[in-house]
Amino acid sequence: MAGDVSGRVVAIWLKRAHRGVMDRVERAALSAAAGVVDSVDRSRRRQVTIIAREAWARCMEELEATVDPSARRANVMVEGIELAESRGRVLAIGEVRLLVGGETRPCERMDEAHPGLRAALGAEWRGGVFAQVISDGTIEVGDRVWWAASGDAGATGPRQASSGVTETSTLPSRA
Question: Using CA atoms, how far apart are residues 18 and 101, in angstroms rounded to an integer?
Answer without folding.
Answer: 22
